[in-house]
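Design review, sub-item: ligand-bound model
Attendees: FS, YL, KQ
YL presented the inputs for the adenosine-3',5'-cyclic-monophosphate complex:
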Amino acid sequence: MLIEVLGASGGIGRGQGTTALRAGNVLIDAGSGLGELTLEEMRQIRHVFLTHAHLDHTVYLPFLIDSLFDHLVANQGCLEVMALPEVIGTLQRHMFNRKVWPDFSVLPSRRYPVMRFVPLAPWQRVDIGGAGGLGITPFPVSHRVPALGYRVASADLPPFVFSGDTTLDAELVVAFQRLGEIDTLMLECAFPDRHASLAKQSGHMTPALVRQLLGQLAHPPERLWISHLKPAYRGEIEAELIPVLHDYQWTCL
Ligand SMILES: Nc1ncnc2c1ncn2[C@@H]1O[C@@H]2COP(=O)(O)O[C@H]2[C@H]1O
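KQ shared the predicted structure:
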């Protein structure tokens, strides 16, 4: 099983989509990177796990469900959107509210809708695809709004951890300790160190915070994929990460 990064940018620009990952028939987040998929590829998707409600992680969800509508109706299919209860409430109130977008969780009928919200609880693993499938474990992270990261593993996928959007605090360190061994860590780093206070205020990481987090892990990851760089600061963040990550295999997405 491969994790395919469809988008991982902290902003927009040619060739840069916001967060969306694909593993088999599962999506993690539905940012503008989702626009990389063909209609046929979208039709394979059965589950969308959301980290949080912010637009850069959800903006293509309304288009996805609209694009799949006929196919789902014809096949009696239903797209499962998995998220924290607070995130589901936000999407119901502000996105699928029949003003911004139709409420596909009651269309074409309440009994057989094309989209279903499934509440998640931190640390309650969800198994997708039975034996040999994916085990997806949500864990709490520290953002401005209720948010999760995900650990994804399967028989042929060593533990992959995606931080989602988060800053560093004591709870995040506890969560990472509980995750145990990590093969690949996709970790956000949105701002350079000169914007440390904005990073804290908006719930994001800087290279100095990445250093602090890694220094507190009992099981450092084998490799790091750094994500969510704000395009305006990309060069600066990369330069600051070089001394922080010199002992790791790493790349900026
Ligand atoms: N206090 C703030 N001042 C300026 N920009 C902010 C502030 N809070 C949030 N943002 C920006 O708004 C963005 C919302 O999405 P992000 O969390 O990815 O990143 C956030 C920041 O880029």
